[in-house]
Model the fold of this input.
Amino acid sequence: MAKKDGVGRYGERVALRHVVSRGWQVLDTNWRGKDGELDIVALDGDVLVVIEVKTRSGHGFGHPAEAVTPRKLARIKRLTGQWLTAFRERLAAARLAEEGIVGSPVPGSPVPVLPDVRTRFGAIRIDVVAVTLQEQGCAVVEHLESVA
Done:
């Protein structure tokens, strides 16, 4: 594994702890669609939040959030649409299975049966969590809300 991959995975774990500490409900992590991956998908109340995590071990290549370009945001928006379709399908299958209408949903589905989660959300937004590793001490976490 390349060093940057380890740094990125560590940053995603830090960001996930940050999101959970805010009391948000995490729906998916590292979800893969045909156009790439969504790092974290969570609910902030009734708002669906898609979180892009960027991690750097310093500022030699700029602030982590600078890596989220307009092109990357466009890809995240496409992936969000793909995620919504897949989520609604998984949720519908889980509810049908719960009612005994069909067999269990696809084995290994990362979304548990969430009867309180609606298929409509109050809003959808994209956030960036920028994680900067320090030579000593804890990582610095900056949460930029509503970047798109």
Summary: Residues 111-115 have pLDDT under 50 and may be disordered. The helical segments are 3-21, 70-98. The chain has two helices and five strands. The longest helix spans residues 70-98.
